[in-house]
Write a structure and sequence with these properties.
With 245 residues, the chain is α+β, with helices and mostly antiparallel strands. It has two domains: 72 residues, Glutaredoxin (3-Layer(aba) Sandwich), CATH 3.40.30; 161 residues, Glutathione S-transferase Yfyf (Class Pi), Chain A, domain 2 (Up-down Bundle), CATH 1.20.1050.10. Helices cover 60% and strands 7% of the residues. The chain has ten helices and four strands, in the order βαβαββαααααααα. Strands 2-1-3-4 form a four-stranded mixed β-sheet, with helices on both faces. β1, α1 and β2 form a beta-alpha-beta unit. α4 runs antiparallel to α7 and α4 packs parallel to α8.
Length: 245
């Protein structure tokens, strides 16, 4: 039975779930929505208010981390190492990226683009037409809500930049011994999570939904993105996308 994945298409946490399902060979139909508009879909499905939410074979699996565990259970060893110690290490790394890197890259990108109507195609990709029409009518209120709830402002963006730099430094230290993957000698949830959650500031072409083009950013933001892309962790994430997405 084809799964249903409820998403905000441009969300990097939803990208994390999409990628995991595809790696595990689980066929799915994506049910995309705008932020806030997704509440109705997830609540009707019996999930929480957050996305992604997966509905498959009568089960409802909310959030990207349980979805990855579910995907790996269908094809064991695809994303989670079989060795218990390495498995726990990979899960700990995933959790750290989920809690620190993901919110930081989201807030930093939102600050750069949220007021840009010319980038609405990024928001509107893969959503119902009525939601696109509703956004046009409610845009100021919707944008204000996102800014308020996610603390999207100059100070928040600067704090996020610092957190992104810290995450990249940590990954750089891990890669310093020449390893090709963060845990063990094969691709795992640790690599997928870093690449997916770093994607908003690296703009990989393989991303599963449209992202802004580099030339859409201000000169200062472009310089920052290019610095992240050139760094060893940035190059690592882009290679993970090229090799595994």
């Amino acid at each position: 039975m084809t799964a249903r994945l409820i998403t905000i298409p441009f969300s990097h946490y939803c990208e994390k779930a999409r990628w995991a399902l595809e790696i595990a060979g689980i066929a799915y139909d994506e049910d995309g929505h705008l932020p806030v508009f997704h509440y109705a879909a997830t609540m009707r499905a019996g999930a929480k208010r957050t996305v992604p939410a997966l509905i498959h074979d009568g089960k409802v699996i909310p959030d990207s981390t349980p979805i990855i565990a579910y995907a790996d259970a269908q094809r064991p060893g695809t994303l989670l190492p079989s060795d218990p110690a390495k498995r726990q290490e990979a899960l700990d790394i995933e959790d750290a990226f989920d809690r620190h890197l993901g919110p930081a890259t989201r807030r930093w990108l939102y600050f750069q683009v949220i007021d840009r109507k010319d980038l609405d195609h990024v928001l509107l990709h893969g959503i119902p037409r009525w939601e696109a029409l509703a956004l046009r009518a409610t845009r100021p209120a919707a944008i204000a809500y996102i800014k308020r709830s996610l603390k999207v402002d100059a100070a928040g963006a600067e704090r996020s930049r610092t957190k992104i730099d810290e995450a990249f430094q940590n990954v750089g230290a891990m890669l310093g011994d020449g390893r090709r993957y963060l845990v063990g000698d094969q691709f795992s949830v640790a690599d997928l999570t870093f690449a997916a959650l770093a994607a908003p500031v690296l703009l990989p072409v393989q991303y599963g939904a449209p992202l802004p083009q580099l030339d859409a950013f201000s000169a200062q933001a472009r310089e920052r993105i290019e610095t992240w892309r050139r760094s060893p962790p940035g190059q690592f994430a882009l290679r993970i996308y090229a090799d595994h997405r």
